[in-house]
Design brief:
Blueprint (H helix, E strand, L loop, with lengths): L6 E4 L3 E7 L3 H6 L14 E7 L5 E9 L4 E7 H13 L7 E4 L4 E7 L1 H4 L10 E4 L2 E5 L8 E7 L12 H11 L35 H9 L5 E8 L8 E4 L8 E8 L5 E8 H5 L3 E3 L6 E5 L10
Antiparallel strand pairs: 1-7, 2-5, 2-6, 3-4, 4-5, 7-10, 8-9, 9-10, 11-14, 11-16, 12-13, 12-15, 13-14, 15-16
């Protein structure tokens, strides 16, 4: 199926927050789970914006745009509330946050089309080409993927058209779920494996929710993880997941889902580790669509 993930996809579900000013990096350093103080032009960052209780209210792919500007690409359905909440913390910092979605073209580039643009790089590598940036992402089904970001009006890379639906399916298959409206405040970063895919820096200074995130990591209290799953019927983000051992209460939540081109639906589910080991799983209710867990496409960091 992996050959389906080839071409250039429109990404209407994504938006861009621009953070500009001499304190842009310093400001984000104090708010997000990843290190923006050390962010340079050759890298991008996966990062989450958490509540004081460590729950993710947004996730971003962040990259530098010149000396005093950082762009945060996020799900468009959480952009407005996220922009409002982040702006409340600016205080005296020399940083200004704006919705810059209209100022940029965003495309997903995958497969042979991406390889034709140059060597495939490790995830979160940023390659600049003129005014455009190419941020390499985690692969899906072995197919390389990247986010192409350029000023509005710029011509996207050449290649066959890839549908937004197939791109979203590839996102599910990559095993990394972004925060969208149905799952705001549902997870601490490790419940979506963010610490295993470069989304959390445990050496950096304070940010909202840091103590909870660190405690989850170092005290071995991590009871939920993200898994890729397949269902024959439709499932959707935000649905609860049930295990046959205890149908009276959910053991997890669907984080992201997309129709699979081979039929059925693929999903990322965050569930109790114990529930993943054996037994029947259903989405939406004890009698809902059955979920079959698939192999994770990356290794989990061993619990410290």
């Amino acid at each position: 199926m992996s050959h389906l993930l080839n071409g250039v996809a429109p990404l209407p579900h994504l938006g861009v927050i621009r953070v500009e000013g001499e304190d842009a990096a310093k400001f984000l350093q104090g708010q997000l789970t990843n290190d923006f103080g050390l962010l340079d032009a050759s890298q991008a960052r996966l990062a989450a914006f958490c509540t004081a209780k460590g729950r993710m209210q947004a996730s971003f792919v962040g990259l530098r745009q010149g000396e005093t500007q950082i762009l945060l690409v996020c799900s468009r359905d959480v952009l407005a509330p996220t922009l409002k909440r982040l702006s409340m913390f600016v205080m005296r910092a020399k940083a200004r946050l704006t919705d810059a979605t209209a100022d940029f073209e965003l495309r997903g580039v995958a497969g042979e089309t991406l390889k034709a643009l140059g060597p495939v790089q490790p995830p979160w590598t940023r390659v600049g080409a003129g005014t455009a940036s190419l941020v390499h992402l985690y692969p899906a089904d072995g197919q390389p993927r990247a986010l192409w970001i350029a000023p509005a009006g710029e011509t996207p890379p050449p290649g066959p058209a890839l549908s937004s639906e197939l791109w979203l399916w590839g996102e599910v298959r990559s095993g990394i779920a972004p925060i969208t409206a149905p799952i705001v405040e549902a997870f601490v970063p490790q419940m979506l494996n963010y610490e295993s895919v470069g989304g959390v820096n445990f050496k950096k200074g304070c940010y909202p929710g840091q103590e909870v995130v660190a405690r989850s990591q170092f005290r071995g209290t991590l009871k939920r993880r993200a898994y890729v799953a397949h269902a024959q019927e439709a499932v959707q983000a935000g649905q609860e997941v049930f295990h046959e051992a205890d149908p009276s209460q959910p053991c997890g939540t669907v984080a992201e889902a997309a129709p699979a081109p081979q039929g059925g639906w693929d999903a990322i589910v965050s569930i109790q580790v114990a529930a993943a080991s054996a037994g029947r799983l259903n989405a939406g209710g004890p009698e809902g669509p059955a979920l079959a867990l698939l192999a994770l496409p990356y290794l989990l960091l061993a619990d410290v």
